[in-house]
Write a structure and sequence with these properties.
- With 232 residues, this protein is mostly helical.
- It has a single domain (2-224), classed as Rossmann fold, CATH 3.40.50.
- It contains twelve helices and four strands.
- The protein has helices at residues 2-5, 18-24, 34-40, 45-56, 90-97, 106-109, 111-123, 133-138, 140-151, 174-177, 179-182, 201-218, and strands spanning 10-14, 60-64, 83-87, 128-132.
- Strands 1-2 form a two-stranded parallel sheet. The chain has a two-stranded parallel sheet with strand order 3-4.
- Helix 2 crosses helix 3 (34-40) and helix 7 (111-123) packs parallel to helix 12.
């Protein structure tokens, strides 16, 4: 999201379906600032879509969404969108997620839903691109160029850097989730601690559940050309 916020032709929207998800999914852990999110964002699906399409009428829009916020089994509204599925090693994802949500489950981290969306896109010939955070970090400018080419949009070098601190498009939940990106000015490899003292049987169980979905998604991932050169 911070990368596309620097693109001169794009407006970004931060998780516009968040309140809709919170309002309609009850069997889950409480989220930070849940009441404030529900009070300040649309909670009905059509309201969210209307908000997005009003923005699209003025310029290109990058919607940062979470797979598990997509509650419809067949989201045909995405058929005319340029869909990008970002995946991350589930162990790294859980390490990050557990800092905010104490007992995340498979639904909360979204990897199963991302796989279901990929299957839906495949079954209905809806275009999509799968990208992976580790591939991005090999060479961010190269990977962003490849992504923009896949989406048939112009690449801008401005996508590789951003001002330190919050972005105007941040959701109100940013203080709980965006500390690292607020301290950054570009893509940097995350500091994943080797000390897994907080790792427990619950997180290991969720990791094992998530791994098959991650592996299936990874089969479609866009590879960074900087690290995958064919030798002759």
């Amino acid at each position: 999201m911070y990368s596309f916020a620097q693109h001169p032709e794009f407006k970004v929207m931060d998780e516009p379906f968040y309140a809709y998800y919170l309002a309609h999914v009850k069997d889950r852990e409480e989220h930070p600032m849940e009441r404030e999110i529900l009070d300040t964002m649309p909670t009905e699906h059509q309201e969210v879509l209307d908000q997005i399409y009003r923005a699209v009428s003025k310029q290109n829009v990058f919607v940062k969404n979470m797979a598990h916020h997509c509650l419809e089994p067949e989201p045909f509204y995405m058929k005319d969108w340029q869909n990008v599925i970002l995946i991350r090693d589930p162990k790294k994802l859980l390490q990050s997620f557990a800092k905010v949500i104490e007992h995340p489950d498979l639904d909360a981290i979204g990897i199963k839903r991302a796989f279901e969306l990929m299957e839906f896109f495949d079954n209905h010939n809806i275009p999509y691109t799968v990208i992976e955070s580790d591939e991005l970090m090999i060479d961010p400018p190269q990977y962003l160029q490849q992504l923009c080419a896949a989406l048939k949009i112009p690449f801008s070098i401005t996508m590789c850097h951003w001002p330190i601190g919050p972005n105007a498009a941040d959701g109100i939940w940013a203080p709980h989730w965006y500390k690292n990106v607020h301290n950054s000015t570009s893509f940097a490899k995350p500091k994943i601690t080797k000390d897994l003292g907080f790792w427990n049987d619950h997180l290991e169980s969720v990791f094992q559940e998530a791994l098959p979905f991650y592996n299936k998604l990874h089969q479609k991932v866009l590879l960074n050309k900087s690290n995958h050169v064919t030798k002759i």
